[in-house]
């Protein structure tokens, strides 16, 4: 429930931020769209009248600026870079301005609107998101104005009955659709402001050209001038005002507001307490969403860097690992391990799997002693194992005390110094045990991790896990092996030196990841842990999302438990300290932090597709996917796997990764709460199959 609440919050924040900050086309962008529209239906007194129109009367009323009167109007703001500079020029010359603000900019920069009002400037409405109102329905027009009024109420506690439609110019340029909107706005009590002179400052023709365009063509005539305080670099507009205002004053012009032209004191008014509170909530939501998205953006850079760093690091180290493995003998400096080894198989209600597992072990080309520890099964697992009558197999029956206790029982019963451990749902190849124990020729090696593969990879879920095992687990182990900080000997295929196990304290039930726990304990006890890539084991992966959730929830939670338990390795010396200062940070960054933040890539991709540049966003997402595809393809090549399943990688990134993210979030919250998660057992189906060498369709064992 909590992960879903967090997801809903992030989605809501992105939606608010996207709607309130999405870039809009400036007035200049709509000029071409309006060309050629018919002016039919526009009353002559409006088309040939003054630039201020009150369409709420019949007939409509229009107003002009009196002689030698200039109204300076500014569209598209407020803007944190240019609005304060324009206001400073106007205030210094004691000149009022009329600022037609958009709701988006008002909600994002409420302090700028308050500053304009405190300085005595006039505020008008320029819609919320700057659409061409002539192309909108009446409901859409009403929403644009309502949101803008809400932003004004929250920002400054005011509303305005003065409006300028986006992409409008002189009354003579009105067409039929835009006049329909004007009449609708007039009916709602709005006074519409058009212009006499458009300086086209958006085209940056130069400060002098802007100033010249604002001077009335007919000396002494009153005029309403269009300028902009947002939508781009407005430095030329600021410089133009520095010369324009003194120039007009010297020519005997005075400066006024639209309200004075209409004959009223002001076109803005206060709002009641309820409306002000609603506006405050709205503006606060926009502020919070903006801050949150800024943080998410910074985190995205971190995640992107970590993902790329992980890919580069894994590819580089895996390539080096493969080259070294080809050059050096697989055995260590000591004599080859040819003596028999013990194999411990813990089993709890594994009747459907145990036969296939034991038959694969008996077929090993390394002499083995097999100890099956039945951990209180009630489905006849022990009877089924004994009924097979396989040579070298001993079945121990114990009360149900958990996997760690069952493994310890098997180790104590084992006759040999090297003990191989595997889950009862796992199938070994004939050479797996031999390859697994080869590194023990080096007396410093305390354990080896084998190469676990998905044995039931049919179906989409199986393919996704197959890709994950090859790319996410076995490619990682090559990296960890080269850095000598292997964090986990997988329970599905691993081998241990009994002496090393005893010095590390044996298997512990302190965590739900006993394999990770004991591996870290071995490092802290000074033992090397190696990766035996040729020791291949085929294990049964969860066949349903519910089973997968339970398994990964236990893995994630158990890994966090183990990392916390062995955190003191960070300050220890020798091999323990190396693992603590290299292995633990890598584990925290690449197995907890990066997967936890990775969904930001997908969420912000959706954000970019809806509110940003769809093409650029899609290319960025495909770029990340391509990098991961390269890693996956190389991992498949190293593992000798055919690349056919990689067609499912894009879908895995969209669906499977989100499930893993939710699991990890829940595991983190469980760990933070201190709750002791019970063991999550997976229901077996016994459908593990081993593909023949060289790929192809799987065959049964």
Class by alpha and beta content: alpha/beta
Main beta sheet: strand number and arrangement?
Answer: 8 strands, mixed
Uncertain spans: 30-36, 694-701
Query: What is the CA–CA distance across the termini?
Result: 42 Å
Strand order of the largest sheet: 15-14-13-16-19-18-20-17
Shape: elongated
Count up the helices.
Answer: 24
How many beta-strand segments?
A: 20
InterPro entries: Glyco_hydro/deAcase_b/a-brl, NODB_dom, Nucleotide-diphossugar_trans
Organism: Actinospica acidiphila
Transmembrane segments: 582-609, 615-638, 659-677
Domain NodB homology: 68-256
What this model shows, in words?
The structure is a single chain. This protein has 24 helices and 20 strands. The protein is an alpha/beta fold and 701 residues long. It has an eight-stranded mixed beta sheet with strand order 15-14-13-16-19-18-20-17, sandwiched between helices. Strands 3, 4, 5, 9, 10 and 11 form a six-stranded parallel beta sheet that branches. Strands 2-1-8-7 form a four-stranded mixed beta sheet. Helix 8 links the parallel strand 7 (162-163) and strand 8. Residues 30-36 and 694-701 have low confidence and may be disordered. This is Glycosyltransferase. Keywords: Glycosyltransferase, Membrane, Transferase, Transmembrane, Transmembrane helix.
Looking at this protein, list some descriptive labels.
disordered C terminus, 24 helices, alpha/beta, single chain, 8-stranded mixed beta sheet, elongated, 701 residues
How do the strands and helices of this protein lay out in sequence?
Layout: H1 2-21, H2 31-34, H3 44-47, E1 52-54, E2 61-63, E3 69-77, H4 83-92, E4 98-101, H5 103-108, H6 110-118, E5 122-125, H7 138-156, E6 158-160, E7 162-163, H8 176-187, E8 191-193, E9 197-198, H9 207-214, E10 223-228, H10 235-250, E11 254-255, H11 258-262, E12 268-270, H12 273-327, E13 341-347, H13 354-362, E14 368-375, H14 381-387, E15 393-398, H15 403-413, E16 418-421, E17 426-428, H16 432-437, E18 445-454, H17 460-483, E19 494-497, H18 498-503, H19 514-524, E20 528-539, H20 545-565, H21 574-597, H22 599-611, H23 614-638, H24 649-673
Parallel strand pairs: 3-4, 3-10, 3-11, 4-5, 7-8, 9-10, 13-14, 13-16, 14-15, 18-20
Antiparallel strand pairs: 1-2, 1-8, 6-12, 16-19, 17-20, 18-19
